[in-house]
Design goal:
By secondary structure, the chain is an alpha+beta fold. The protein has 8 helices and 9 strands. Strands 6-5-4-3-7-9-8 form a 7-stranded antiparallel β-sheet, sandwiched between helices. A two-stranded antiparallel ribbon has the order 1-2. The radius of gyration is 19 Å and the shape is globular.
């Protein structure tokens, strides 16, 4: 399922995305505005809020990617990952130009489509009128390194920060930890400072490899996925897994957690694509009425 599933309609090439969307009353009538798209020849109508996010092979227009990115950031706010104006989620540009990500100086809950920018791997803003984040290489370099990753999330989740300071393995003592324990969730230890160079972004991508994400001690977390739903849900789950384990360790010594066989079974059953997208749909349905 994608945000856009109705038959595609062609519109005049010279019409700007914002004008077209406003004329159609799209995204439940709550789209504030949209970035200027150079040549928006084709758009399609979105489904209702709360459906699963769009995969790369289904994503055919830049405006669709921009809406997807805005939704992902708003969903992170619903999940409690807001750190004032810091942190960001991104979606791969379907035309291969870079990534659509949250603009700087806005909180997750404030992100509308006009606060999304298209950023190249060199840091140039191709679409949108606002400033990009310094840490854009987190997103661009991860997606350059792995063509199967189409969405990236970076937040300053406090429980992840607290847990990563302990230097102990993450255990599957709840469903939340299951996607991150075979093998143990990677730690990016090259720096606890901002990841604002391509070299650091490349090192981070190498650290993550084929994992669902990683912890950034003294910084936060990064999660990845084939779509925004998966990347966002993995951020939510990693933060919750860290919180659950910290709570258990505060009470005493850990004694029980899922073994490898159970972890494998849970990954297929508990965190199947349908269950992951169902959780993301819940977050999307609780986005502020002001919307995307």
């Amino acid at each position: 399922m994608s945000w856009f599933s109705s038959p595609i309609r062609e519109e005049p090439a010279e019409m700007e995305a914002a004008d077209w969307l406003k004329s159609r009353g799209e995204v439940d009538g709550r789209l504030c505005s949209a970035p200027k798209i150079s040549n928006p020849k084709i758009f399609a109508e979105p489904e209702r809020r709360g459906t699963a996010s769009t995969r790369k092979d289904e994503m055919t227009t830049p405006i669709q990617a921009a809406i997807e990115a805005a939704t992902a950031n708003q969903a992170l706010a619903v999940a409690g990952h807001t750190d004032m104006v810091w942190g960001h989620a991104s979606v791969r540009d379907p035309k291969g130009r870079g990534i659509w990500m949250k603009a700087a100086e806005w909180g997750f809950e404030e992100v509308t489509v006009d606060k999304i920018v298209l950023v190249t791997p060199d840091g140039e803003v191709l679409e949108g009128s606002q400033k990009r984040h310094l840490e854009y290489p987190i997103h661009t370099e991860i997606m350059l390194a792995n063509p199967d990753i189409n969405a990236v999330v970076h937040t300053h989740a406090p429980m992840a920060n607290a847990f990563s300071a302990l230097g102990v393995p993450l255990r599957a003592i709840s469903h939340d930890g299951v996607p991150f324990v075979r093998p143990d969730v990677p730690r990016f230890t090259l720096t606890g400072n901002l990841i604002r160079t391509r070299e650091l972004g490349q090192a981070l991508a190498e650290t993550i490899g084929d994992a669902a994400g990683c912890l950034l001690p003294a910084h936060g977390l990064v999660t990845v996925g084939p779509d925004a739903a998966t990347a966002v849900m993995r951020a939510v789950l990693l933060e919750r897994a860290c919180k659950v384990q910290l709570t258990a360790m505060a009470a005493g010594t850990l004694k029980l957690w899922s073994d490898d066989e159970e972890v494998e079974a849970k990954n297929e059953l508990v965190w199947s694509a349908s269950q992951t997208h169902a959780g993301y749909g819940y977050l999307c349905r609780h986005i502020s009425p002001e919307g995307i």
